[in-house]
Design a protein that fits this description.
Blueprint: H1 8-35, H2 39-42, E1 46-49, H3 57-65, E2 75-78, E3 82-83, H4 85-91, E4 99-101, E5 106-107, E6 111-112, E7 125-127, E8 134-135, E9 148-150, E10 157-158, E11 180-181, E12 194-197, E13 203-204, E14 216-219, E15 225-226, E16 239-242, E17 249-250, E18 260-265, H5 269-272, E19 280-286, H6 298-316, E20 346-347, E21 350-351, H7 352-378
Parallel strand pairs: 1-2, 2-4, 3-5, 4-7, 6-8, 7-9, 8-10, 10-11, 12-14, 13-15, 14-16, 15-17, 16-18, 18-19
Antiparallel strand pairs: 20-21
């Protein structure tokens, strides 16, 4: 009778294949688990800061985040306090912000400083402090995904390149109070389709609206001078409504690559003939007195009315401590954009996804160690 003889050399290749398969599956599972956001991570998208001392917003954000990885935070609402340049800089430490709500706050001296919050990769909605009077140079430039800005009717000055290269910006709530719009302030804002230049503005500075997506624009009666390339490369511009009795003086290349009709009063047509160049034509068809106003949206108004009412109520009522768990969403938000306090998405400094991967890998290592021990002892599994 033939004896069965166990051949370890034939068995081991199969064992190696099994071990390689187990390792591959473990790595694959690890990648999948890391890619799936956990509930804890989702809960960190929204962060509320109740209040802060001027210059110490960074500390208040850190306390409210309570260990949350800043990469997970998408929306932030600051309910009260006065921001200075250092506080705006604190917001830039949160890299993936989509919504920034500051309607309940004030900005120091009514001025949003230069380069306050530029070049944010994900920012889509921005609500400015309730006492804003001046928006500094390059304050929000190159926020290429920024769609909506809400600003109070107190704003009078929008400085150079404040919103330049905000390509997705659709709504610009410029009120009648604005008397100064600086050089290149809205340059390359391709999503804006119409604009009313407030009546109080007397001069348009170079490149203010160049490369914008305007289809029509209204120029108030007080504008006396239009700087170089103000409307250059506004390829969609078809109708220019000019309400001045005398045509504003033009610098070079104001209408470069523009094909449009200038609508003016019949009595002013002779003056506007100086604008007739290349593809610009004069249509003397305006009637009635100038009545246009640069108006802000109802949503914009309601946001700041609610913020003012909340401030008045706080001044009238005894102050009580409000925990983050009782925080209320900022007034004027929609339900889909409600900002709630963040909860920690980390365990011992690591995200839940990382912890799960570590546990799975530990289990796999334990199994592999057991298999290797059994192979060493008996040559079989």
């Amino acid at each position: 009778m033939a004896k069965f003889r166990y051949d370890k050399k034939k068995k081991r290749p199969l064992v190696k294949r099994i071990l390689i398969l187990i390792i591959a599956v473990a790595i694959f599972l690890g990648i999948i688990i890391m890619a799936i956001p956990t509930r804890a991570e989702e809960s960190t998208e929204n962060l509320t800061v109740q209040s802060f001392e001027t210059g110490k917003l960074a500390d208040a954000i850190s306390e409210a985040a309570d260990g949350t990885d800043y990469n997970f935070i998408k929306n932030i609402a600051v309910l009260s306090g006065t921001l200075n340049a250092e506080d705006y800089n604190a917001l830039t430490a949160i890299p993936n912000l989509e919504i920034v709500e500051l309607a309940g706050t004030e900005t120091e001296g009514g001025i949003i400083p230069e380069n306050a919050l530029p070049s944010r990769n994900q920012l889509t909605v921005l609500t400015l402090p309730k006492n804003t009077v001046e928006i500094g140079k390059n304050a929000f430039s190159s926020n290429r995904k920024l769609v909506k800005v809400l600003m109070p009717a107190t704003v009078t000055k929008i400085d150079d390149y404040a919103f330049a290269a905000c390509e997705a910006l659709e709504e610009v709530p410029v009120s009648a109070a604005v008397t100064y719009i600086g050089e290149g302030a809205f340059q390359d804002c391709k999503a804006i389709t119409e604009f009313v230049i407030p009546a109080g503005i007397s001069e348009l500075y170079p490149n203010t609206f160049s490369k914008c997506g305007f289809e029509s624009i209204s120029i108030g009666p007080d504008v006396k001078k239009i700087g170089g390339s103000v409307f250059a490369d506004c390829n969609n511009l078809k109708d220019i409504y000019a309400y001045g009795e005398e045509a504003p003086a033009l610098d070079s290349d104001v209408f470069r690559n523009v094909s449009a009709a200038v609508h003016c009063y019949e009595d002013s047509a002779e003056s506007y003939k100086s604008w007739k160049q290349n593809n610009i034509t004069i249509a003397a068809d305006l009637t009635g007195e100038y009545s246009l106003k640069a108006e802000i949206s109802a949503e914009n108004s309601e946001t700041y009315e609610a913020a003012a009412a909340e401030t008045e109520a706080e001044n009238d009522e005894p102050q009580t401590d409000v925990s983050e768990a009782e925080a209320v969403p900022v007034q004027g938000q929609t339900d889909t954009q409600s900002v709630q306090p963040a909860q920690s998405a980390q365990s011992g400094g690591l995200s839940v996804g990382v912890v799960i991967v570590i546990v799975v890998m530990a289990m796999i290592i334990a199994v592999l160690a057991t298999v290797l021990i059994m192979m060493k002892k008996g040559g079989k599994i």
